[in-house]
Amino acid sequence: MFRKLYDPEEDMDAPGTERFVDDYLLYLMARASHAISSEFHTKLRKEGVSVPVWRVLATLSGSPGETVTGLAEACLLQQPTMTKLLDRMVRDGIVKRMPDARDRRVVRIQMLPRGEQMVKSLLVAAKAHEAEVLARFPAIDRMQLKQLLRAMMTKPPKVRRSAMAA
Asked: How confident is the model over 39-84, as pLDDT tens digits?
């Protein structure tokens, strides 16, 4: 009749769990991402491409251009770090800065042919790595997994205080 409320202390007593992090979703997601990404980062090092450069190129691939802020967010970098990285990539002829068509105060980053050539084989390698990783877990529906991860990345709507009191 009454629904049992969640008791976090019960999770702590789960069999086989010793440390808090061993059963903590955010930690598990971060560790899984790190482990799987590290495999691909080895390929990047062999190709002479840094992880931040790869992230910029992968984000720009198929895009008409991204803002510096948008790139920083997508590439998991602070904006000042992204600006310095883009300075180097512009100098190396990989990307260019362009004024936004609608708002001249906004700068968009676009990939140049040299960047497109650099990323071409890496995109193929990334998709092959993804397929290899997913093949390790044949019972998992890849589309549902990706939908779940995308849903986790969206910020929930802010709850108004008046709605909380109701």
From this structure: 999 999 999 999 999 999 999 999 999 999 999 999 999 999 999 9
Q: Are 125 and 43 in contact (CB under 8 A)?
A: yes
pTM: 0.79
Largest CA distance in the chain: 68
Residue type, 129: H
For the chain, percent of residues with pLDDT exceeding 90: 77
Phi (first) and psi of residue 99, to 5 degrees: -70, 145
The runs of H, that is alpha helices, within the chain are: 8-12, 25-47, 51-60, 68-74, 79-91, 113-135, 142-153, 161-165
Using alpha carbons, select from 155, 161, 74, 71 the residue that is nearest to residue 108.
Answer: 71
Count the neighbouring beta carbons within 10 Å of the beta carbon of residue 33.
11
Mean pLDDT, the chain, rounded, equals: 89
Measuring CA to CA, which residue among 60, 47, 43 is closest to residue 94? Answer: 60
